[in-house]
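Bumping my old thread because nobody answered last time. Still need a sequence for this structure:
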């Protein structure tokens, strides 16, 4: 039996590239005169040795195969060595977003029922303060500080830690969704899915061993040992990523000759603006991946100008299925964005090899078999469903959510016999490209038709003084009243009622000739822009914690319905 365990890649890299740098973690030291960042470095051999030591220590403390371990550590060295140690043991790390809010955090902890807590001191204090939420804990391991490093030193062994003989279908980890349209849900990742992700990403983007990555979402650092890439840990607060110091990220890219980086639109906007002000470019970057929310072409255009030797890509996917498709900045600027501005939705590109998509009629309930649903034709908007080697099969201990989101397909082989409903609306064009039109939960149902957020907002976002907008429905379906909430660009928030009225008139003038894609029953049509109950202005729209880019439209809908 061949072992399918993503942990196997680390000792393989340690054997192939023992002295190559695997990890660079920024230190507090900073040479202001030279403008350089000081780093703690680990080779692949050293990082594998660290993971082995951690695995020996965890095992000595009682963590065993199949045990759930809530992992709350700092991004970088401790994240990598702890995750790979747990994978080597065959234990199941439970990974939560640190900024999801205390209420959601405690709910997720209680629901996932971890038996071990591997965490920094702050997390242990929280566990003591809320003992009922952590009632399932049997093992508590504190990470960080001299005591932790002493334990690792004591458990270093000449013999490598044997990797658990897990199989493709064995549960590897539990990762939580961002909760942008509801409570965060634990997603069950199997070992085979991690390997599938590594293969799809490497092959699609041509990633090679020896490259250098700056992962602006910490979880993406876990792929780098498998890819043989150096991880440069960014100086970023994972609970508030959009507050990062762009100058430090740019310094890290230029100093370490970073070739690859993944981040949200909010982060890359900060980098772009700083580079433009400082008249800097980023010549070492081969590729930049921008994802987590729809990406405005202005960001793609300006970011691409900073990459004389690289390309910007926009991958599409979700925690439950990543990646699904991808599109380059060149294709967006040359072909698709003109259609987006006309209200046709946002093109998210062609599918990754091995992935398949179907567009299904929107159904407010479970679909017990794919044979029950007929796929829509090219150009028709419906719910996006996908299958392939990276599609997860279930949510953690949420049978109703699993039944709603997963569609069994008895006509397919067992390994690919589950479709995932993305919760997104979209369509495929005649060339097979996938287009995104908004979230199913955020669609606006009126007596005239069904309107889609991404189709409507793109029209208004053409206004030069609009940073972004949120199209929402007031009251309840199917008789909602549309409204628009606008976040003006910096420096353009209306200062008086007269300025506000002029701003509104300009937005309405844009909408006069617009005919965005809408729905009537199961038919897609181009309808005139609906009459708005109001156009409201906010200095900032509420967004998700993970990417600081997904707009919380349902929150806005509830708020403005109450105010009406």
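Sorry it took so long. Here it is:
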């Amino acid at each position: 039996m061949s072992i399918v365990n993503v942990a196997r890649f680390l000792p393989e890299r340690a054997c192939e590239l023992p002295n190559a740098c695997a990890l660079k973690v920024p230190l507090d030291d900073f040479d202001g005169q030279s403008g350089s960042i000081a780093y703690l470095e680990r080779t692949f051999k050293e990082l594998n040795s660290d993971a082995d030591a951690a695995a020996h220590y965890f095992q000595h403390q009682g963590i065993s195969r199949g045990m759930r371990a809530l992992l709350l550590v700092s991004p970088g060295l401790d994240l990598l060595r702890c995750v790979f140690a747990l994978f080597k043991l065959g234990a199941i790390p439970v990974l939560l977003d640190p900024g999801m809010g205390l209420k959601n955090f405690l709910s997720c902890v209680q629901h996932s029922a971890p038996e071990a807590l591997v965490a920094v001191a702050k997390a242990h204090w929280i566990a003591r303060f809320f003992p009922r939420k952590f009632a399932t804990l049997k093992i508590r391991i504190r990470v960080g500080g001299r005591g932790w490093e002493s334990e690792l030193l004591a458990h270093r062994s000449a013999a490598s830690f044997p990797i658990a003989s897990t199989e493709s279908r064995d549960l590897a980890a539990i990762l939580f969704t961002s909760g942008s349209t509801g409570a965060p849900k634990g997603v069950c990742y199997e070992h085979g899915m991690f390997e599938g992700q590594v293969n799809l990403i490497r092959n699609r983007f041509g990633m090679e061993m020896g490259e250098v990555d700056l992962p602006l979402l910490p979880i993406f650092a876990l792929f780098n040992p498998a890819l043989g890439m150096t991880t440069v840990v960014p100086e970023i607060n994972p609970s508030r990523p959009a507050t990062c110091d762009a100058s430090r990220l740019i310094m890290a890219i230029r100093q370490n000759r970073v070739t690859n980086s993944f981040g949200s639109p909010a982060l890359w906007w900060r980098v772009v603006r700083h580079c433009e002000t400082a008249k800097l470019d980023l010549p070492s970057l081969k590729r930049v991946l921008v994802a987590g929310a729809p990406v405005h072409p202005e960001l793609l255009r300006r970011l691409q100008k900073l990459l004389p030797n690289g390309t910007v890509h926009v991958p599409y996917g979700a925690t439950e299925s990543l990646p699904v498709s991808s599109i380059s900045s060149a294709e967006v600027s040359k072909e698709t964005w003109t259609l987006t501005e006309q209200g046709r939705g946002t093109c998210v590109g062609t599918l990754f090899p091995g992935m398949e998509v179907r567009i299904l009629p929107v159904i407010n309930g479970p679909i017990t078999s794919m044979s029950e649903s007929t796929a829509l034709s090219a150009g028709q908007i419906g719910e996006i469903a996908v299958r392939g080697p990276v599609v997860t099969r279930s949510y953690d201990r949420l049978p109703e959510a699993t039944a709603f989101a997963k569609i069994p397909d008895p006509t397919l082989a067992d390994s690919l016999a589950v479709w995932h409903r993305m919760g997104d609306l979209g369509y495929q064009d005649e060339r097979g490209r996938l287009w995104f039109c908004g979230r199913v939960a955020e669609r606006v149902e009126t007596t005239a038709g069904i309107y889609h957020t991404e189709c409507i907002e793109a029209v208004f976002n053409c206004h030069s003084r609009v940073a972004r907008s949120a199209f929402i429905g007031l009251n309840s379906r199917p008789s909602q009243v549309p409204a628009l909430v606008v976040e003006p660009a910096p420096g353009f928030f209306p200062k008086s009622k007269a300025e506000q009225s002029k701003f509104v008139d300009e937005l309405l003038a844009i909408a006069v000739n617009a005919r965005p894609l809408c729905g009537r029953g199961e038919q897609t049509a181009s309808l005139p822009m609906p009459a708005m109950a109001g156009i409201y202005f906010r200095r900032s729209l509420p967004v998700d914690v993970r990417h600081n880019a997904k707009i919380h439209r349902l929150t806005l809908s509830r708020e403005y319905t109450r105010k009406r």
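The mean pLDDT is 94. Let me know if any region looks off to you.
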